[in-house]
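Let's study today's protein:

:::
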Amino acid sequence: MKLSKCLITAVTLLIVLLCLTCRNVYADDTCLGRMPDGVFPIGEDDIRMEEETVVVDLKNNTAQCEFHFYNSGKHKTILMGFPSVLTDDNDISQPVNLEVHNFKAYIGGKKIAVKKEKNTPKKDSDKPYDKFSQWYTFKVNIKPGQRIIVKNTYSFNPTYDSISNIFSGYVIRTGAAWKGTIGKAKVTFKLGDMQPYYITDLYPGNYKFVGNELVWENSNFEPTYDLSVIYNESRFKNSKKYLDNYGGDIEDINKIVKQFKEADQLAKQKNNKELIKRYNEAIAAHQNVLAVYIKSKLPDGLVKEKTSIGDIHIEKREDGDFYIGCDILGIPEQQSKITVTHIDKNGKKIVDAESSNYFICHLEASVNYEILCQVTDWKGKIIEKSTKYFAPPS
């Protein structure tokens, strides 16, 4: 038998993304936590993940993950590992919040022995599995042509910031390391007594509210993204205290609650025409969670989720430079880029500036420019829109 090593997905990529966002704004009082994880192998070419079913309980911070694997290669024993303790070099996190708790593993419904092992993290490594100081490990024996079911359960501490935003989600992109595509995946976030309007941001597309659950599904895909769910209970459950501490307007909170309740009423009345109108208004206002909620009330196929490019903004500032921006609507993009170019006297195309979808640059007077906005949506599709602009004489 061949012994190969597999690692259950490291959450480093999404954790780092969340940490960078939180630290830049709330550097003194952000508490880094953990997120639910999937599984991924190192150099495994024979085993495909045919199915992935995950249930994340946002109220109790627990996760149940079930993975269906198929071995198209030789008989082998796989050493699987689940990252237990994340190493934080910035010393902003409590050690307990970097640790997965109560981890258990099952194969074919039978609980198997799990060993906790130490690892020496490599500070300069860009590999996600080098960021963890401890691992849960267990062996999986799989024959040629065999299908097995691996189940993991555990509890975790989510990331939160100083204004009570809680960052959760599910890391799915590392599933791309298994052979071929992921056959199908379903991730269910149990909301408990949370109201849907507590959720402030979702990524990527394909979410649907079903009762008191938020469900994400996809099939035959190779992920290049992770799932993100950001919510804030305090803003709505203790509005007065929240506004006293962090500022804001109670009318804004009441408006959000009203919009969700009106969607419920319209759904009961089966007023699909008005629901579609409200959906389009939510997209235009960048209220993506409300748009997902309204879409969940409509019959399948009446509205299509997409990422689109709205207006390209060019505004001259008092200092003579120009503010250039691109309005992106719908599902948030994976990445975006604006390129400013002009044609010189010799007919050569000159790139004057290139950056993300908002930046400030200098434009020469009396020159014709082209501004190109490029957006990559969550499925990897590239969307483009351009406009011409003549910089006015000084």
